[in-house]
């Protein structure tokens, strides 16, 4: 509404008829100002999101003339679960309950095709009849039976790197000297006794019946053996997995060799050796190996002896 400011300086010497229109104009002007003031407040409320249809994303909080910035809620950082460090598996040739047998020489009288006797290769493994449990008799060109104190020995073949699991289907060839310290097919070329092969059963076991071998000069009383992964490999005289020897218990040796009629020179030879550690084959083995490679025997010279030994392979 337009308003002339010069009219405010006029005097009041006019009558009611003149002042009434001015009074009504002034009243109307004040109402207009009040209306504008109210409209401004409503606009401010609407601008602050006071309406029920306002979006919360558009709202701004006003406190004492300052704008408050909402503090964001921190996102929790998850602590990663540490990855467990794997325990290294120790490489060992032994497990609880069994020890890997030491590799030993097969000696000068193996008859396994690796050397000769009387000018020809000696290989009893290719001979028919070599697979047998009782090895006391010759079976090639003679039927002579070796005499002496009977010994029955069971060998259990196990894998020391697989919790001593039995190894079935393997072939074990054993041989030893007779009661006088002589070997068939060599110092006794006409004989083939005290040699034989057996295949391990589901328990990894083989059993041989032989005699308690004599003790010859320079060696601790022993039994030779070779292990093959199959009978085919054994009877072809090749690919031995292990070549080793069994040491006979000292106390049993002393008892058996006391019969100098049956074992004429063994007692003297055995006394001269002294101890297992002084033997040129067993002397460099560990105590654990010699213990495992010495069969535990029970029995007597009259009834014979029965023994067992566990042969460990580190496969």
Automatic annotation (TrEMBL):
SUPFAM superfamilies: Aromatic compound dioxygenase (SSF49482)
Coiled-coil spans in chain: none
Low complexity bias: start-end ranges: 54-97, 113-123
Region (Disordered): 48-123
InterPro entries named in the record: Intradiol_dOase_core
Molecular function terms from GO: iron ion binding; oxidoreductase activity, acting on single donors with incorporation of molecular oxygen, incorporation of two atoms of oxygen
Name recorded for this polypeptide: Dioxygenase
Species assigned in the record: Sphingomonas gellani
Lineage: Bacteria, Pseudomonadati, Pseudomonadota, Alphaproteobacteria, Sphingomonadales
């Amino acid at each position: 509404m337009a308003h002339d400011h010069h009219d405010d300086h006029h005097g009041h010497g006019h009558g009611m008829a003149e002042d009434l229109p001015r009074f009504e104009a002034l009243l109307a002007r004040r109402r207009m100002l009040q209306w504008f003031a109210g409209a401004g407040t409503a606009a401010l409320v609407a601008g602050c999101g006071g309406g029920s249809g306002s979006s919360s994303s558009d709202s701004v909080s006003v406190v004492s003339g300052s704008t408050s910035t909402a503090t964001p809620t921190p996102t929790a950082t998850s602590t990663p679960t540490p990855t467990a460090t794997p325990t290294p598996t120790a490489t060992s040739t032994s497990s609880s309950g069994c020890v890997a047998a030491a590799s030993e020489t097969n000696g000068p009288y193996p008859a396994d095709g690796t050397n000769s006797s009387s000018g020809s290769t000696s290989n009893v493994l290719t001979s028919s009849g070599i697979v047998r449990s009782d090895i006391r008799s010759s079976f090639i060109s003679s039927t002579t039976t070796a005499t002496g104190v009977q010994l029955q020995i069971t060998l259990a073949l196990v894998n020391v790197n697989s919790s001593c699991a039995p190894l079935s289907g393997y072939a074990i060839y054993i041989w030893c000297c007779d009661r006088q310290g002589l070997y068939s097919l060599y110092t006794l070329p006409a004989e083939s006794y005290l040699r034989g092969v057996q295949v391990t059963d589901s328990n990894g076991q083989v059993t041989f019946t032989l005699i308690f071998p004599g003790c010859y000069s320079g060696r601790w009383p022993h039994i030779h053996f070779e292990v093959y992964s199959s009978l085919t490999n054994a009877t072809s005289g090749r690919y031995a997995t292990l070549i080793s020897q069994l040491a006979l218990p000292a106390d049993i040796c002393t008892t058996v060799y006391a019969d100098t009629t049956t074992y004429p020179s063994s007692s003297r030879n055995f006394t001269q050796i002294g101890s297992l550690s002084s033997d040129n084959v067993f002397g460099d083995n560990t105590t654990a190996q010699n213990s495992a490679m010495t069969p535990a025997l029970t029995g007597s010279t009259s009834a014979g002896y029965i023994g067992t030994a566990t042969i460990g392979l580190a496969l």
